[in-house]
Amino acid sequence: MRYVVDTNFFITAHRQHYPFDVVKSFWEKVGYLASEDLILSIDKVKSEIFKNNDYLRAWCDDYLPSGFFCDSSVCYDQYVNMMSWASSKSNHYNTNAIAEFADSANADPFLISYTLSDKSNLKLVTYEVKDGSKKKIKIPDPCDDHGVEYLTPIQMFRELGISF
Q: Whole-prediction pTM value?
């Protein structure tokens, strides 16, 4: 099993839970898991992270393997299906939520599509949780409807037997 990590895996860790200067062991484990090809992400996540010229961007450049951020265009068929799914949910989500989800710069539908393309070998890792909102399509909703397994970072670490 391999784990596909969302943008918030990095940003939330960096800004809130595991700052680089306090929890160095977290970042060492992330680098190790990436080098062992147990975790990966996609190019859209890289774009979201690299918008900021900060320490997280520098860390990703320095410590993640060159192939860590995979090409999301390989899951185009699944992405098209994901867009159809989002359009079909207009009775639940407002127009802005669907438009935001469909924005080609948004990593979420690509993450789900990428994981969906090999869902027997991939799990999606995110901090997002269901909240019933009509204002934003959160990762768990399309995952549930498409049979994509998702979990929190802590759940992933437990599955991998990782501790700090």
A: 0.96
